[in-house]
Amino acid sequence: MASRDLYEVLGVSSGATAEEIKQAYRRLARDSHPDRNPGDPSAEERFKEAAAAYEVLSDPERRANYDRFGTAEAPSNPFDIFSAFFGDAGFGGFGPPSRSAASAGADVETVLQLDLAEAVFGGPQAVDVTLAVPCGDCEATGAAPGTEPVACADCSGTGQVRQVRQSLLGQMVTAGPCRRCSGLGEQIESPCRACRGQGRIRGERTYTLDVPPGVDTGTVLRLSGRGGVGLRGGPHGDLYVQVRTRPHPTLQRRGDDLMARLKIPMTEAALGSRVSLDTLDGPQELRIAPGTQSGQTMVLRYKGVPRGRGRGRGNLLVEIVVETPEQLDGEQTALLQELARLRGEDVESGGLRSRLRSTFSS
Known about the structure:
The protein is an alpha+beta fold. The chain has helices at residues 6-10, 18-32, 41-57, 60-69, 78-86, 99-102, 116-121, 266-271, 330-342, 352-361, and strands at 108-114, 123-134, 150-151, 160-167, 170-177, 186-187, 200-211, 220-223, 239-245, 251-254, 257-265, 273-279, 282-288, 297-300, 316-323. Helix content is 26%, strand content 28%. The chain is rod-shaped, with a radius of gyration of 36 Å.
C-alpha cells in the first residue's frame, strides 16, 4: 500500500509556506496526541504520521528532494554511498541527528507490585508514574501565552548547521545540531513562565497496563510512547514497567510450577481422609490415602502457572507433612499406648528395650 502524500497528511497544499506547515503540524499533533486520546491506537498512528511528515517538510533540503523525487532523500547521493562504507559517523561524525531525536522525551522506569494470583493470571493493572508532561499554559510550545516561537537565526529553522571544508577526498560537508536552538530550529523570545520555555512540566499520569499471564519478578513490560514528553512538544519516550511479585502466604513459585505444603494429623495420614486445599483456582478437595507418609508429594495437574503461547499450565505440587500430636491428655495417651501394644511396639522406653534384647540374644 502506497504511503500517503505528506502534504495531504498535514492538510496543506504543496505550495504552503514553512509557517503554514508548522501551524498545521501543531494543530494535528495537539489534537491526536496520545495523552488526549488514551486507548485510541488510531490517534497514536495519526500523531506519528504527522510527526514524520513534518520532519521532512520542515527541512528545506529534504522538502525539495521530496517535491522533486517523491522521497526525502535525493537518489545516488554521494554522502549516502560514503555512509554505506564508513557508517553514519564517517570520519568526523558528520551524520546529523534528526530534529525529532534532538527533542525526544526520556524513557521512564517504574515498578509494579503484583500479588501471586495477579502475576499468574495477568489482566489490566493501573500504573501511576511521575514524568514530564506537556505544559498546558503554552500548549507545549514553550512560548508565553499570546506569543510564538520564531525560527532560529543561526540555522534558519532547520535545526542543523552545515559546514564545507577541504580534505584529502575533496570538499567535505559536515552537519550537526545547531547550538543556539539545540537542534529544534526554533527560539523562544518570551518563555512561558510555567515551564520556563521547555514546553513541559512534571506531572502525574495513570496508564492501564495489560499484564500477560505468567509474568514473574524481573519481567519488564514496555509501553511505547508513554514515557516523558520531549522538549517543546517533541515525541514521548517509552515507559518500562518492572514487575515484582509479593510473597504468597502458602504458595511458592518454581518456574511454571507452584509448591504448597499440606499439614495433616497423624490419624488422617494413617486412616485416610478428604482435605480441602486453597489454591489460586479456588478450594480443591484432596483425597488422602490411608498410610500416607510425611514427605509424599501430590501432583495437581494444570493448577500451576500459564506457560504462555497456549502451551497450557504447570502443576501444583503438594508436599504432605504429617504432624505428631502434642500435649496429649490421659485418655489420648492411653489410647495410643493401647495401639502401640496391639502393634507390638514398645513406646514406653522408645523401643530401646526391644532393640537391646535383640542385640544380646544374637
